[in-house]
TrEMBL record, chains A, B:
This is Protein-disulfide isomerase. It comes from Streptomyces gilvosporeus. The keyword Isomerase applies. Residues 3-204 form the DSBA-like thioredoxin domain. The lineage of its organism: Bacteria, Bacillati, Actinomycetota, Actinomycetes, Kitasatosporales. Gene3D superfamilies: Glutaredoxin. Keywords: Isomerase. InterPro entries: DSBA-like_thioredoxin_dom, Thioredoxin-like_sf. Pfam families: DSBA. CDD domains: DsbA_FrnE. GO terms for molecular function: isomerase activity; oxidoreductase activity.
Amino acid sequence: MRVEIWSDIACPWCYIGKARFEAGLAAFAQRESVEVVHRSFELDPAAPAATDVPVLDMLAAKYGVSRAQAEAMEARVAEAAAGEGLDYRSDRIHGNTFDLHRLLHLAHAHGVQDALLDALYRANFAEARPLADPAVLTEIAVAAGVPAEEAARVLADPEAYAQDVRADEREAAELGATGVPFFVIDRRYGISGGQPAEVFRQALERAHADGAVQVLAAEEAGVCGDDGCAVPGS
Amino acid sequence: MRVEIWSDIACPWCYIGKARFEAGLAAFAQRESVEVVHRSFELDPAAPAATDVPVLDMLAAKYGVSRAQAEAMEARVAEAAAGEGLDYRSDRIHGNTFDLHRLLHLAHAHGVQDALLDALYRANFAEARPLADPAVLTEIAVAAGVPAEEAARVLADPEAYAQDVRADEREAAELGATGVPFFVIDRRYGISGGQPAEVFRQALERAHADGAVQVLAAEEAGVCGDDGCAVPGS
């Protein structure tokens, strides 16, 4: 089985939802047969690349509320994060995540995508680190297992993995995702939002119970197996 | 949409079926939205790594037939290959394909998997090249776009990408594939064998008509979208 998770590093419910999904996966008996792939989604693709806008200011401006009201909204999200054992700081920076997604595609090629996503979430939400700084990003990527020279090369070339990020985003739209996190099991079932762990476990059970793919009846065709290669019509 | 194709470089119907699938894909209106991933399958995992056994001798021994009968079987496959414009030689060598599959996983990480698979099929079926020779393999991989030093490193380390090959093979069994080529569309539909192009086109149409994934109704959950992040129960 294969679970694809569309998310953004700037998305609090993606951070929390990842922990809840992993709890649901841990409770799923066939967890060893599940492959997880992270897909790119930008909540604010128009955000400037380098920024020092505090998230609380961005929220107050976006919703037209006071700074105190923005803090109250963040406090409710922080409470949900604490429920999953996750640190959550509201003094973090709001910025563009395109480069972070390009790095996650590089990390995928090295088999360390999940580790890098965890590290980016932690750097953003638990440590409020400035992710617009290429030196900070490179340090995080290397600690997650990405070769240093490749991380630097990808960060220096704005087109590296850019098509992969955009392809993920197109695919999210085609699948009907309007927000994140968005979880897709075997391209069959979709789950929107940071649901409780039990919802994920049940969805995995359901997809597993559906069994193998439906083999379309078609013409007798050439196929090779244990017994050799069958030639149709002979 | 995503099509996964399980195949083996030693499998004539995989060689022919790839061309037929590509003809069906070319006739599918939404072909731009289709991602193709090649998966590993070994028809003869017990074959010795280095071998100079001619395929015709292997076939005669496997089926307990005369060399002339083996040639007649091969002639029917060659005819099917010619129907797709593919060269096909029966004087090729039978050997182990595990290293070839490991290389295809490396090529996937570089975005040139399809080019390498085409090159390996051509080298085996059209040119009868000795694929057990690491120098030959490296040359083919490099021509397909794999960095030379990485190809050499992977070929020198028998564990490099070995788990990925085995994972593909486990997954084929889980999906119910007993032979190759085996095509899986969006983990929903399976197609066995080198079917005519029209069968592939129709299967792609059917999967496309099914539309987006089924979103499972679940609890109201935290989700972030264009309008910001919704906090459940607030």
